[in-house]
């Protein structure tokens, strides 16, 4: 491990504590690193430090990182001699180095608009009870071109109807009504969280996961306080074949981990029998319709759902009937339940 503390500005580390600590975890994303760093250094909000982490990349990432060694914003460079085996170990390490009041995990393959920090920090400072704030995202491809996919789906939550383009929600309620159904906080780069709500154990289970570990982490830290939705697409989320998001879907590993996350929510929050049936029935529907899994793999997945979550095809049929009756006001669907 090679760690560099930027001692050339040592007074800054004892007197001027930054408001935000920006952690840039990298593994083989040399081709995106300069773009990512430019998007950080060009933020309109400038009270931050940058912590650069490399997880034993095999491309020329270290060469790119070294270019920023003497940048006054860079407080730490940490280069692993061996791969850690988990991006969440890198998150954990970066947070240990962080001195800021807020943490932004800016993934190396993503980018951001210049006012990302300004908008998220303004909302967090106005809401002391908030543990997390997140924005929307524009999806981009390998070359930075628009992907044309809207993942946020805010529906009627327009900025004109909110407090300056953002809204705060009770964290525990948000987990039950939103995050149980879907990981709306789908990319770390879209998120800033308050460090005082963090503890190292929040990442212990995530380290054992490859795809849904971030979903579980956002559930845990959201439940510590309130959560803020900022209704602007200020994050640029890159979707490409080597991204963990795409790899998890293609391998099917995301399903096994999704089951663990849903089980965690059911064990720690009062989701209710009706909501549980509709949520899991919906999940089974998606699984049944997917063409990427073999019949044998799908059968194993269904057995895992039945064993871990205690539901089966009856729940799927209930959800289908509920969907047909969704025009009735008191029926529950993901869209209706979303805060």
UniProtKB/TrEMBL annotation:
Keywords: Transferase. It comes from the Bacteria. GO terms for molecular function: hexosyltransferase activity. Residues 21-198 form the Glycosyltransferase 2-like domain. The keyword Plastid does not apply. Gene3D superfamilies: Spore Coat Polysaccharide Biosynthesis Protein SpsA, Chain A. It holds the Pfam family Glycos_transf_2. The keyword Repeat does not apply. This is Glycosyltransferase family 2 protein.
């Amino acid at each position: 491990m090679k760690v560099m503390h930027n001692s050339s500005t040592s007074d800054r580390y004892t007197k001027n504590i930054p408001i935000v600590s920006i952690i840039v975890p990298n593994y083989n994303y040399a081709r995106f690193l300069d773009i990512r760093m430019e998007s950080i250094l060009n933020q309109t909000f400038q009270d931050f430090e940058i912590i650069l982490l490399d997880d034993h990349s095999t491309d020329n990432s270290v060469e790119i990182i070294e270019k920023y060694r003497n940048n006054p914003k860079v407080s730490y460079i940490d280069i692993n001699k061996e791969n850690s085996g988990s991006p969440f170990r890198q998150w954990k390490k970066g947070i240990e180095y962080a001195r800021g009041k807020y943490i932004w995990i800016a993934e190396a393959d993503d980018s951001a608009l210049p006012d990302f920090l300004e908008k998220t920090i303004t909302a967090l400072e106005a809401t002391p009870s908030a543990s997390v704030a997140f924005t929307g995202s524009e999806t981009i491809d390998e070359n930075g071109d628009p992907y044309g996919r809207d993942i946020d789906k805010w529906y009627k939550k327009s900025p004109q109807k909110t407090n300056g383009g953002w809204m705060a929600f009770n964290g525990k309620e948000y987990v039950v009504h939103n995050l149980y159904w879907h990981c709306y906080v789908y990319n770390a780069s879209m998120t800033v969280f308050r460090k005082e709500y963090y503890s190292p154990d929040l990442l212990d289970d995530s380290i054992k996961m490859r795809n849904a570990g971030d979903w579980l982490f956002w559930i845990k830290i959201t439940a510590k306080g309130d959560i803020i939705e900022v209704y602007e697409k200020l994050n640029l989320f890159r979707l490409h074949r080597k991204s963990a998001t795409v790899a998890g879907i293609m391998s099917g590993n995301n399903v096994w981990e999704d089951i663990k996350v849903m089980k965690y929510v059911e064990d720690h929050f009062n989701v209710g029998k009706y909501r549980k049936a509709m949520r899991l029935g919906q999940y089974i529907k998606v699984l049944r319709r997917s063409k990427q899994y073999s019949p044998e793999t799908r059968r194993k997945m269904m057995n895992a759902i039945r064993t871990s979550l205690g539901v089966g095809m009856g729940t799927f049929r209930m959800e289908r009937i509920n969907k047909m009756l969704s025009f009735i006001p008191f029926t529950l669907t993901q869209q209706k339940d979303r805060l």
